[in-house]
Amino acid sequence: MNGHGEPSAGLLRFPVLSLLRLNLAGLQLLIMCGCTQQPSGDSGIGGNEDANRDIPAAVIAARDGAKRGGEETAPESPAAVTAMPFERLSAELVPEVIPANGSERDYSTILESLGSGLAAIDVDRDGWDDLVIAGGGDFGNRSVLSRPISLLRNRSDRFDLIAAATVLPETELYHHGVSAADLNSDGFTDFVLCGYGGAEVYLNAGDGTWYSAGRLASCDGLWCVSAASADFSGDGAADIFIATYVDWSFENDPPCYAEDGVTRDNCSPRLFNGQPDQLLLSDGQGGYRDAADHWGVNSHSKALGVVAADLDLDGDVDLYVGNDVMTNHLYRNEEGRSFEDVTVRSGAGVSSRGTPDASMGVDVCDFNGDGRPDLWSANFEHESFAIYRNQGDWLFRNVSELTGVASIPALYVGWGTAFQDFDRDGDSDVVVANGNVVKHPAHSAVRQRMLLLENQNQTWFEETGGDPRSPFSESREGRGLVVLDWNHDGRADIGISPVNTPVELLENRCSGESNWLSFRLIGTAASRHPVGAVVELQLRKHSMTRQVKGGGSYASTSSELLLFGIPADAEVQRLVVHWPGGTRTEFPVPEFNSILTLIEGRATATAIPD
Ligand SMILES: [Ca+2]
Ligand SMILES: [Ca+2]
Ligand SMILES: [Ca+2]
Ligand SMILES: [Ca+2]
Question: Does residue 28 carry a pLDDT above 70?
Fold first, then answer.
């Protein structure tokens, strides 16, 4: 603790403060390159006034406000940017899988409002990310039923639908979340299935099949939605945090109505009590110890999304939990012994008005390139999506207005979401899948379009939709969302699992001269899937960082690969990984446009074959 100043440099695993000495004045924008305007990477940070010529005036205003150090003022919206070209893969390439919620049974329960997610998992380690898709659920006679999980195997040029019964045991859960992680550190990715009434662990047998390791006992009877796995205790074994929702059941199912007062509709979570979130600490032998009470994360909140990452870069993994209609929670890991609830003093729990938002999907990313991980929350209609800039020392400033995020029309109910540099200009953009929670909304649509917000100069987010040919212009009941590079072209693609319509793979077709690097990290002293590890690419005048995260999005898990877009004129001078626990490994600078495995303590990187 050192007051409200900068974090103690001695605690940090890499020199954030040096990264903070960024002068945003020099970010240049080059010509249109097929996706959007491309700022230069390496010449960009620290430049001259000529560089201002092509920068939208509003961005300069925001930047100059920040430079003055006085009260920042929100810039006006810059001119519209070119939509990024994404194409939905055809049904020939992505066989039909339809997650469902049972809404056609007309029970109109709140259970129907959540939908379900998916995970990008390389199930058999052939190098290609596959898709594990939650099936959702159905209703019997005032009873809750499961639907099967689906697997789409990536054959490098198409996906094949694998019959679920041939690769994994059936679940009895009406389920939402697929939270992927290597839970037993054998190199093959496992997952936790979160559902109404519990959470079930599926372990990967290593041959493309899974077996059930049973339900997590402490979650029995709870409505589990999302999970995040990471080594919270620092003993090398992957632990699990489970986000739980409310106490609805058919015995606690008050009738709710649409605005006309007559038509039945799904109830609001405000009518129900929140349930206690769960923390399971691994004993390294396949067993788990309930630690939610002792670690101080047993909040009876109405949690939907969770992301685990090292937010203060001190070597342990912290937690951000998105709660519906309640304050979000931010937990600081106290050296692997417990969590401290720093929500109130951090400012990361509420809107810019100080009110709780209805948060669904959450993510972490250093959007402004200062080296510190920032927070993102996709919220409800009549609220703003929220971006919280990490100021250091566990202070997070809500900069939704300052970054243009608050300018997005407040019509959207946001769920699955992820940061990623989709246009490979060196900064992280953000995508959100949207859809309503009720069947008869009064002021907005049931089906909603997705939002792709392009990061401009690490200062401002501009919505890039609007092209009627884009899959982003189509409306869906959006829920689950993952990012993966399905075809290894270095362009980050998007997988989505809407409610009651087919899963889609949106392929990124951005063109341009930029380069890319993609990394899979393997811990040795740190846990094998090293959540909290930071890859740092040092360019001539600044660094780019990406962190391995646990959980994130909504009920979904994106690819474990960290994909960097690298502007065409950028030159990578060093590649350093900062591992959880505080060690670092420097690797030789790799050839551009490759996928590499980086192992803690080894000096060489290994190419992942394609
Ligand atoms: Ca495993
Ligand atoms: Ca930490
Ligand atoms: Ca970008
Ligand atoms: Ca791609």
Answer: no
Confidence of residue 609 (pLDDT cuts 50, 70, 90): low
CB 297 within 8 A of CB 241: yes
Give pLDDT, residue 30. 30
Strand partners, 597: 520, 606
Q: How far is ligand 3, taken at its centre, from the CA of residue 567, in Å? A: 10
pLDDT digits (tens, 9 = 90+) for 539-578: 999 999 999 999 999 999 999 999 999 999 999 999 999 9
Q: Can you tell me the mean pLDDT for 88-109?
A: 97
- Beta strand 300-301 with 288-290 is unpaired
Say whether pLDDT at 11 is over 70.
no
The per-residue DSSP string of 420-433 comes to E-TT-SSS-EEEEE
Ligand closest to 331 (CA) is 2
Which of the residue ranges 131-140, 289-298, 464-473 would you say has the lowest mean pLDDT? 464-473
Kindly give the distance from the C-alpha atom of residue 527 to the centroid of ligand 1, in angstroms, as a whole number: 12
The alpha carbon of 528 and the centre of ligand 1 are apart by a number of angstroms equal to 10
Neighbours of 395 (CB within 10 A): 17
Strand partners, 606: 597
Listed residues: CB within 5 A of ion ligand 4 = 485, 487, 489, 491, 493
Identify the nearest ligand to the CA of 12 by its number: 2
Q: Which ligand is nearest to the CA of 427?
A: 3
- The alpha carbon of 393 and the centre of ligand 3 are apart by a number of angstroms equal to 27
Based on its alpha-carbon atoms, the radius of gyration of the chain, rounded to whole angstroms, reads 22
The Å distance, Cα 295 to ligand 2 centre, comes to: 15
pTM of the model: 0.89
CA–CA separation, 431 and 480 (whole Å): 12
CB 116 within 8 A of CB 102: no
The pLDDT of residue 366 is 97
> Could you tell me the distance, in angstroms and rounded to a whole number, from the CA of residue 14 to the centre of ligand 2?
13
Task: Give the length of the chain.
Answer: 610
Using the 8-state DSSP alphabet, how is residue 128 labeled? S
Mean pLDDT along residues 135-148:
97
* Ligand 2 center to 188 CA (angstroms): 26
**Whole-number pLDDT of residue 352:** 84
Ligand number nearest to the C-alpha of 566: 3
- Asked whether the predicted pLDDT for residue 181 surpasses 70, the reply is yes
> How many whole angstroms from 428 Cα to the centroid of ligand 3?
5
**Using an 8 Å Cβ cutoff, are 27 and 60 in contact?**
no
Copy the structure tokens of residue 110. Answer: 């709140």
pLDDT in tens, 230-278: 999 999 999 999 999 999 999 999 999 999 999 999 999 999 999 999 9
Ion ligand 2 residue ranges (Cβ < 5 Å): 310, 312, 314, 316, 318, 333
Ligand 1 centroid–CA 236 distance in Å is 14
Alpha carbons 54 and 154: distance in angstroms, whole number: 41
